[in-house]
């Protein structure tokens, strides 16, 4: 799913690596099947994976020994002959640490199980920390979270603002004053765990795709916060874009006669939709519905060409639901349909995130699940 | 590359099929290498494919016997020791029939070699043929083209207007009055050849991606003709969209106060950019540059959100160059850059197609190359 590379995986000799890669791939096939479809018998797993019964039994034995898979006994409805024993993913056998750095005033984290369920939460106030202080704060948060679970930790996932490269280095995150910050490498060294870092909007769309989406059609998650950015999963894969800048829709100009933006151009989508701008406009107006409807209509205008071009399945708004869910979403939905062909909008759902404020945390866990177990 | 299924491939027993699939996959690996990188020695092929020397020699022997690959002797610069013999794709050993149904007044076709070079052309006037008459005309064109080459024909590729499913059935093409027309199946039956049919904009983007693009970044080809539609290759794969309707940007509303469109809505991109509208406006104006600049600016407005969202590498306009190449393209390019972040537009090239009017024909050949040889 994601092309983010793991950091902290020990190097192995090349000959061994190919054999291990095949085994790892086969393990992933079985885990993916149990992850997506739920409990199954060994015979089911052999049938769907195309592996032999012997290989499946061998790998399942290994996964049970590792604690990732558990024996569930026979299904209740079995009546004729010796019922097959089902095995299933042991969701709470292993935990993942998810960290969300997208808020401006705090860093949030969670202990998450293999089913994407938050088991415990923790957050630290940022108090304006930037640069090395902000890195130290992420380390403290990770240490606190690891101490909160007694299960083995599969890895650490981080959703960071800004541009993040495939090796987990934050190339540029102005908010945190990070330039070429090797966050994955330093966390991996400090904790001896695999670490995955990705842009927060990309992390969000992976979370929504894995644990919130209804299908496998194109999914766009638009994150509305201090800024506005998007993550996209198209044809089952995260869209990176030519120079890794896919989803940069916040500074697309919507209204050339509008407000001057922080980026120095005029009328960017952010000047209309970002939370501080929305709240300021709501505080000065007597008719909040009119403000939200206007913002939603302008959002619809900018998204209609995107929906028409991509034939999206789901367009998800992620941010404060008291702002997004209601007149704003309704207006955006209406304008998108008015401005595209029925063939483009017939299969489209416009909604808010099913994961709410947890979407980046859960997505950060998906980075680890995909990278370490090959499931997503 | 494309998910279009071949039609006309004989069915084989399942056990045999798996073995043959592995062999076919390995053949494709070698052909893909020769197709993309040019001539290579057997040792080079073994190194890059990861296959053993013995397997490579065996497969190359088979490909030479099939005529797809030829021995090229030793490279001139070899001086020390026994020079390795190079093998290369035998571009003219086998031909492909490409057919373009996107024009309203004629059907065009070509005999194309494995390097994507047009060897011969042929066209038939449509004279308003629709329905079964139009199908009969495609069959006549295919028969004429097959008679024009003495080489073995690898298959027939067709770029058709309208919505085309993965099995090569044209679901809906109003221009030709086709509804659920099983074009691939009837052509395959008539000629005993593998046939691939896809939407013309998707076919065009495959042609440009394989034989006209400069890189592997996101590519969008905007076809401007009687209508306007787009095809996209993102992260190396053709974008289909949720219901197979990706690229339907022609009826995205650009100007709600504009002209009424054939689709009954107002101010669709087609009312601004389609060739008949452009020609009509040019014939009534004294300043053609102003007309073309205005159309280009409006195109830039509708494409800016798409470019920002996708971080495209190349945006290609395909259609009459006397209309597109000049003030129109320049204005679109300028407005897209004015309306997106530098990070979105820095790596972007906006240009006309390198394949000119042949883009659908060559793309139709790519459908066959991808489907039959696994190269693209």
Automatic annotation (TrEMBL), chains A, B:
Instruction: Give the domain of life.
Output: Bacteria
Sorted alphabetically, which PROSITE patterns does this protein's record hold?
ROK
Q: Name one Pfam family in it.
A: ROK
What's this protein's family per the entry? Belongs to the ROK (NagC/XylR) family.
PANTHER family given in the database record: BIFUNCTIONAL UDP-N-ACETYLGLUCOSAMINE 2-EPIMERASE_N-ACETYLMANNOSAMINE KINASE, ROK (REPRESSOR, ORF, KINASE) FAMILY
Protein name, per record: ROK family protein
